[in-house]
Amino acid sequence: MNVIKLSKPEAVIFDMDGTLFETDTLLVPVHRRVFETLREERLYEQETPPVERLLGCLGMLLEDIWRQVMPDSSEAARKRADDLLLQYELEGLAAGEGELYPYVQQTLRQLKDQGVKLFVASNGLEEYVKGVARYKGIAELFDGLYSAGEFATASKVDLVARLLKDHGIQKAWMVGDRSSDVEAGKGNGLQTVGCAYASYGRAAELDGADVHISDFRELMALLEQTEEII
């Protein structure tokens, strides 16, 4: 963890995939099912793309993800993939599949006990983001679950801007594992925490973050270090 001190936040805004939720624990079997169904429905005739390609696109908007994962596909195939992805993700979550990163639930509770407001800002679909929070038992810890799917925002910068305005937040941390999270924080004048424990992106994506953490519990240490510089 970096030794840079951050200013005390009113709120902490989290990305979901690769930050709170260890997405590959759900997405690997879902990915296989999506492409099996697309081939059965004759919407996609190619071999199943490697799941690493999909994992590497986490943090993007869905329409951009499918262009990367299956660039030779039709618009009909991409739209059907959207529906199947959500259906199979929610089915998997309901069946108990998928895991939060270690210490996420405990640390979120500790942050909330310290009076910090907690939010999610994700480029995912509304039902998915809220489904992860609900099925993993953390939904009640958040003051708001914001998603590009719900608010139809063109970028995470816009999504976070709406969140801040809606709740009158002046000072917050943006916590995430991708360059889009760093950009969302910096674009709204927030301090940024890069989650270096996730393996979906490239390490260079977090170069602009104010602080890097390799364990979710380090957020509490960062909060404690802010007391002198409120």
Q: Please state the structural category.
A: alpha/beta
Which sheet architecture does the biggest sheet show?
Answer: 6 strands, parallel
CATH homologous superfamily (4th level) name of the largest domain: HAD superfamily/HAD-like
Give the low-confidence spans.
none
Q: How would you spell out the order of helices and strands? A: EEHHHHEHEHEHHEHEEH
Q: How would you describe this protein?
A:
By secondary structure, this protein is an alpha/beta fold. The chain folds into two domains: 11-22 and 99-229, 3-Layer(aba) Sandwich (Rossmann fold); 24-94. The protein has ten helices and eight strands. The protein has helices at 24-40, 51-55, 62-69, 75-94, 104-113, 126-135, 148-151, 156-167, 179-186, 218-225, and strands at residues 11-14, 21-22, 99-100, 117-122, 144-147, 172-176, 191-195, 211-213. It has a six-stranded parallel sheet, with helices on both faces. The two termini are 20 Å apart. 43% of the residues are buried. The model has no long low-confidence stretch (mean pLDDT 93).
